[in-house]
Automatic annotation (TrEMBL), chains A, B:
Subcellular location: Cytoplasm
InterPro entries, sorted: Ald_DH/histidinol_DH, Ald_DH_C, Ald_DH_N, Aldehyde_DH_dom, G-glutamylP_reductase_CS, Glu-5-SA_DH, GPR_dom
Name of this protein: Gamma-glutamyl phosphate reductase
This protein's UniProt keywords: Amino-acid biosynthesis, Coiled coil, Cytoplasm, NADP, Oxidoreductase, Proline biosynthesis
Primary localization class, coarse: cytoplasm
Keyword Cytoplasm: yes
Residue stretches in coiled coil: 26-53
Any single Pfam family the record assigns to this protein: Aldedh
Role description: Catalyzes the NADPH-dependent reduction of L-glutamate 5-phosphate into L-glutamate 5-semialdehyde and phosphate. The product spontaneously undergoes cyclization to form 1-pyrroline-5-carboxylate.
PANTHER family associated with the record: DELTA-1-PYRROLINE-5-CARBOXYLATE SYNTHASE, GLUTAMATE SEMIALDEHYDE DEHYDROGENASE
Associated pathway: Amino-acid biosynthesis; L-proline biosynthesis; L-glutamate 5-semialdehyde from L-glutamate: step 2/2
UniProt-recorded Gene Ontology molecular function terms: glutamate-5-semialdehyde dehydrogenase activity; NADP binding
Classification lineage: Bacteria, Pseudomonadati, Deferribacterota, Deferribacteres, Deferribacterales
Gene: proA
């Protein structure tokens, strides 16, 4: 079957999936969890092939670790699916309803989007997470994982499809595809009418390729260039704790801080304390001229303000006022997560109002931007765009709306 | 100033606009309405130039009519702006708010998108509608109208900017651009980081050009291939009235019916009645084999099921059951507006559940899909895509969300 013929089947499957009851979808998800549990050896055997290939290809330790599926990680996948079972079904929720003066009853109801294409790299557990979130929200899925994980993704796809077929649905409800280079990604991006939404998760190269080639709407999961601003009225203890946490707790993720902004009036008190803490944790510090006049750091360049290090590196800038901090953030930030530390009510409200980002914090670490931390359930990623959804993207965001109108012979005058 | 430098100014203007109070935005809109009233002669003089050019270029009567701005149409523009003043401000609405177990208070709040680029054809009144809706929702706007209306659009842009500057805002808050061919459209589509959303309104050629070239998210206002299905349990009077209204009341718009589906058990009763009515109204009928066995019509081809006539032409298909009707609609429809006429409760619910469209009706004409008819206020168009918004697109849909999080020194464990 050609890829386009397969996509036609996926579209057909999506129409059957759209109006399934929550109970039926949850039973299917439970069976996927059971199948994963029963097939641990099949999974580990196939994963071993990917690991062996990765070893041969000389993949880095970090990449090899991402590839690995052991019992602990299979447990995590199973628990992930069961968490999704226990979430509310977003489909069928009535967003609003009213009666018009002419008697028409209008309801705006959440419905599945249709077919979701997800493009991701390396980690094979995404195959299970993404399939489960799509099924929960009544969508069919086309999953294109990284080529390093091709054997692992194939077996996970088979296990998911076995449960799907067992529940009387078309096996193309979840289609895991195998791609070398970007041939099938390209075909996906042109498959208007078959795929309704593309979610790319990965590095800048992938995101750019998808943005430039897609004829289908996309929700991007791009970079996070996040700031913490320590105001002159900050509680110093909170400031040090938050600035340390935002950089060090998990530096390789998109909601970690990359640039620290600090008001000139507290720079001399806060920076030496932070320097001690950061140095113990092995953080490299790069600072502006004013920072350098307080602590000994590497000089920061214009490029540093634009860089998402994803590493134990931090750029520091001393600012003269809240406006300068907000301007810097709106100019260099990636509109992901931004925090202020202050005890000043008016300054806090100003920051919340004027910073343009998916998540804006007062006196908390940027690290909380996450579906589970926000109480939204599992996430398929964090949207860095403003259209459709912004911030953690869960099952709710894999739905759209439909107007349902009850009339009684109404015609337009 | 280069176009990119102008766009930088628009972006700067949008940041100032984001957190304006509703009162301030409404005062500005009222002043725009007053300025339009005071400058009727300036508008009509500039419009006369476009009309003269149009005459020379041999524009069709319909196009010339769309171009015309007389006092009645200036009144309509003024009333449109005042209607938008009286609508609720979508900015600042809290969609949900809750406290997490760790004490973090999280609010999901509606905020402006930023800079909206709107690309439209011929009718100059769109310049005023679009600017007013963008301002109401706190967005800056880049407006690219049709080249036939260049003088009218320029003067309307000046009148809007005079009010903007008078209110202490940057004149680039609304930028009306003049474009020959599609040079500036192309530049708009590549202006990632300056424009946040592109709304194309126009023919298939324009929509395709925008879809293929845009690096910026778009909300499309594409075609409407709408159906009415008359079920075997339909009330015959309602069926005839609705099928007539959906085709004839205003055939040139996207929510008009293009194909009538009818259950075989009622075809012999309904079709002759409808044929009489349609013929009086000058509607050309094209039908399937079964239709032809009941009434005398031109044979319909496969192409007819795919065609948005926007004219007094109707294709008719007799179907054997509700499933066949739903399948036809999901296959050939453009997911815009679809209606069933039936007194059967279960069949009605099945149609509502299984038809995949922005608006699905029971016993009402498809012609109601419209911002004002739905009670949503003025619309910038009708979205035919599933992402971000679906159906009539008003001020609410020109906003996105932002998470606001209040902590007390919270760090991630």
């Amino acid at each position: 079957m050609s890829f386009l013929e397969q996509l036609k089947k996926v579209k057909e499957a999506s129409l059957k999936l759209m109006h399934l009851k929550s109970e039926v979808k949850n039973d299917l998800l439970k069976q996927i969890a059971e199948n994963l549990d029963k097939n641990r050896n099949r999974i580990k055997n196939e994963n071993a092939k990917d690991l062996a290939e990765g070893e041969k290809a000389g993949l880095s330790k970090a990449l090899m670790d991402r590839l690995l599926l052991n019992d602990k990680r299979i447990d995590a996948m199973i628990n992930g699916v069961m968490d999704i079972v226990n979430q509310d079904d977003p489909v069928g929720v009535v967003e609003k309803g009213y009666k018009r003066p002419n008697g028409l009853k209008i309801y705006k109801v959440r419905v599945p989007i249709g077919v979701i294409g997800i493009i991701y790299e390396s980690r094979p557990n995404v195959t299970v997470d993404a399939a489960a979130l799509c099924l929960k929200s009544g969508n069919a899925a086309v999953l294109r994982g990284g080529k390093e994980a091709v054997n692992s993704n194939r077996i996970l796809g088979e296990i998911i499809q076995e449960a799907i077929v067992n529940n009387g649905l078309m096996k193309e409800t979840v289609l895991v595809i195998e791609d070398s280079e970007r041939k099938l990604i390209y075909d996906m991006l042109k498959a208007k009418g078959y795929i309704d939404l593309i979610v790319p998760r990965g590095g800048e190269g992938l995101i750019q390729f998808v943005t430039e080639n897609s004829l289908i709407p996309i929700v991007k999961h791009d970079k996070g260039l996040c700031h913490v601003y320590i105001d002159k009225d900050a509680d110093i203890d909170k400031a040090v704790k938050i600035a340390f946490n935002a950089k060090v707790q998990r530096p390789g993720v998109c909601n970690a801080m990359e640039t620290l902004l600090i008001h000139k009036d507290v720079a001399e008190v806060v920076l030496p304390k932070l320097k001690d803490e950061y140095e113990k944790a092995g953080v490299e510090l790069r600072g502006c001229e004013l920072t350098k006049s307080v602590i000994d750091v590497i000089p920061a360049t214009e490029d540093d303000w634009k860089t998402e290090y994803l590493d134990l590196i931090l750029s520091i800038k001393v600012v003269g006022c809240i406006d300068e901090a907000i301007e810097h953030i709106n100019r260099y930030g990636s509109s992901h997560s931004e925090a202020i530390v202050t005890e000043n009510y008016t300054v806090a409200q100003k920051f919340l109002d004027e910073v343009d980002a998916a998540a804006v914090y007062v006196n908390a670490s940027t690290r909380f931007t996450d579906g589970a931390e926000f109480g939204l359930g599992a996430e398929i990623g964090i949207s860095t765009q403003k259209l459709h959804c912004r911030g953690p993207m869960g099952a709710y965001d894999l739905t759209t709306t439909k107007y349902i109108i009850y009339g009684d012979g109404h015609i337009r005058k």
